[in-house]
Specification:
The complex is a heterodimer of chains A (about 375) and B (about 190).
Chain A: E1 11-16, E2 19-24, H1 29-36, E3 62-67, E4 80-81, E5 91-94, H2 99-112, H3 130-137, E6 155-157, E7 161-163, H4 173-180, E8 187-190, E9 197-200, H5 213-217, E10 223-225, E11 238-243, E12 252-258, E13 261-267, E14 277-278, E15 281-282, H6 287-292, E16 300-304, H7 328-331, H8 343-346, H9 363-366, H10 369-372
Parallel strand pairs in A: 1-5
Antiparallel strand pairs in A: 1-2, 3-4, 3-5, 6-7, 7-10, 8-9, 11-12, 11-16, 12-13, 14-15
Chain B: H1 17-20, H2 23-37, E1 49-51, E2 61-63, H3 78-82, E3 88-94, E4 107-115, H4 124-128, E5 134-136, E6 151-152, H5 154-157, H6 166-176, E7 183-185
Antiparallel strand pairs in B: 1-7, 2-5, 3-4, 4-6
The chains are: A alpha+beta (about 375), B alpha+beta (about 190).
Chain lengths: ~375, ~190
């Protein structure tokens, strides 16, 4: 079997949910399952393939190992975290075929939601939140928890990033970003156990050029983009792929537009919700691209972004970006159709350019004199 | 070829003299008309008389406030995404310190618009709302000469303040309640 693989590492055969795949030795069960793809892939809240050392914290990727290996076919006594467990020759793994796993995972989701506020209507991450998806997938959209949740004040991490510690599930991904992408880690996890919290050391702002990537890696809405705060719901924006010639980063991004306005810039995400790789390197983007280039002229737009059709973001059905040709003037001899009402003259929405505001809009922005003069 | 057995052959025989003066048929028709004069009328004298709506009638939208008069809506956009007619638009703003008595959540709808020309009154917005913020009331949109009068902004949709405008609020609640008499006159 190993003769077929080109790697010097001999391949091992592993069976996940009755699907057998050959992977290089040393691969984790999660990554082997990702090579199969589809439903057999365990969800992951803390594991991030582009961040070294991540994983093993959230326990959502638990799987049952029904047979350890060909040499020792005894099952593993407890469910194992698939992101941290390597495959063995002849290993038999059960993920969605095991009721034990489903039950345990639903329990893990409930535990993650213990302290997580159910403020999805307010949260900017709603619609692309992994915890939200996970909760709905396991039928745990409500909560049974009756006690006070831990609460924290909102905190600004630098001028562009807002930390809602109440929403944090302590996956540590952002600290790995700070550790591995930026030169110097200035934020980390303080305290332990129930008191653990992500914080900047001595409220030091993160001014590193790649700090914005921690917004992208955050699986929940704990770290959000302040320049996008409350500007729009994710599913009403139009995601398009765009690139620019950036000296610092790959410059390949997703623009989240409303009309021609660029409301938000993020890195491109792959099917696992992780940053896409471009030419073998993770496509992290710099803060200049993310926060400062909020005009469509800064970007070369490639086309509509690849959005899973199961995602609420696909509800806009942006499959092409050309506006359809106006056919009415053509058939009416060049005369434009007479409108009984032009909604843009009547509507009070879309009067201000939200993308030009540095942060969330306030009541003042909407009641400014320019807004009144219509 | 016959598709069904229900086709009737047309009688093409020429009418007799008695038939051709139509007297009997006219009398028959007048009889029907006269009978209907004494029957119960299907119509009412609107607007002096008005019918009550059914208990589940879905009419004009109301944006709700809580008991302290704070707006419930947090501009989550679920009504707009649920709306099959795409009649709802909104823009959110962040609640500032000192505005806690106006808005219940840290985000609120600074602009909220329903295009009543597009709305099909299906009630899916009410169904989708996680904050009990939008309700369909027991009234319908009044007629208007101009189309722009049907774009309802937040000031037209919001329920009156339960503390500051108590009477108007109670009136609004009363309008929303289903009326039990089958027919009432104004």
């Amino acid at each position: 079997m190993s003769s077929e693989t080109n790697n010097t590492v001999p391949g091992v055969k592993v069976t996940i949910d009755n699907i057998t795949i050959e992977v290089p030795a040393g691969t984790t069960i999660l990554n082997a399952a990702r090579q199969i793809g589809g439903d057999v892939t365990p969800p992951a809240m803390c594991y991030y393939s582009k961040l070294e050392g991540s994983g093993g914290k959230c326990r959502t990727c638990l799987v049952e190992v029904a047979a350890g290996s060909t040499a020792d076919p005894r099952p593993m006594p407890k469910l194992v975290a698939s992101c941290r467990t390597g495959v063995m020759e002849g290993m038999v793994v059960k993920n969605i075929t095991s009721d034990k796993v489903k039950e345990a995972r639903a329990g893990v989701v409930e535990f993650l939601l213990l302290n997580h506020p159910l403020d999805c209507p307010v949260c900017d991450q709603a619609g692309e939140c992994h915890l939200q998806d996970l909760g709905y997938e396991h039928g745990k959209e409500g909560t049974r928890y009756e006690f006070d949740r831990r609460t924290f004040e909102k905190e600004d991490i630098g001028p562009y990033i807002q930390l809602h510690m109440t929403r944090c599930i302590l996956c540590y991904r952002c600290t790995y970003v700070a550790d591995q992408l930026t030169d110097q880690r200035v934020h980390g996890v303080l305290d332990r156990g129930d008191h653990a919290e992500i914080s900047t050391h001595i409220s030091k702002a993160i001014d590193n050029n790649f700090s914005g990537n921690m917004i992208d890696v955050c699986p929940v809405g704990a770290l959000t983009d302040k320049t996008f705060r409350f500007k729009n719901r994710v599913w009403f924006t139009k995601p398009v792929y765009a690139h620019r010639d950036c000296p610092d980063c790959c410059g390949k991004v997703t623009l989240w537009q409303r009309g021609d306005e660029v409301l938000r810039v993020t890195a491109r995400k792959d099917q696992w919700g992780e940053v896409c790789s471009h030419e073998g390197k993770p496509g992290w983007i710099c803060n200049t691209c993310r926060f400062d280039k909020k005009s469509a002229h800064d970007w070369v737009i490639e086309g509509p972004a690849d959005v899973s059709r199961h995602s609420v973001i696909s509800q806009g059905h942006y499959q092409q970006l050309q506006t359809p040709k106006e056919t009415l003037p053509e058939v009416m001899g060049g005369r434009a159709p007479k409108l009984m009402m032009d909604i843009h003259e009547v509507s009070e929405v879309n009067r201000i350019e939200l993308s030009q505001l540095p942060g969330a809009a306030t009541g003042k922005d909407f009641n400014s004199p320019t807004d009144q003069g219509k | 070829m016959q598709l069904t057995q229900r086709a009737k052959p047309v009688d093409r025989q020429p009418m007799t003299w008695l038939e051709s003066i139509y007297l009997w048929n006219i009398l028959k028709g007048m009889g029907i008309t006269l009978r209907h004069l004494f029957m119960k009328k299907a119509t009412i004298q609107y607007p002096e008389q008005q019918r009550t709506f059914s208990k589940v009638f879905r009419g004009l939208h109301v944006l709700n406030r809580d008991q302290d008069g704070r707006e419930n809506c947090t501009a989550c956009g679920l009504c707009a995404v649920a709306c099959p007619a795409e009649a709802i638009t909104m823009e959110a703003a962040e609640r500032q310190p000192g505005e806690e008595h106006l808005y219940r959540e840290e985000k609120y709808a600074a602009k909220y618009e329903i295009n009543m020309l597009r709305c099909i009154f299906c009630g899916l917005c009410e169904e989708a709302c996680p904050k009990d913020a939008i309700y369909l009331s027991q009234t319908f949109a009044p007629a208007n000469y101009a189309r722009k009068g049907f774009i309802y902004a937040k000031d037209e949709l919001l329920i009156p303040h339960p503390v500051n405008e108590r009477d108007a609020y109670l009136q609004a609640l009363d309008d929303r309640k289903p009326q039990h008499s089958t027919l009432h006159t104004n």
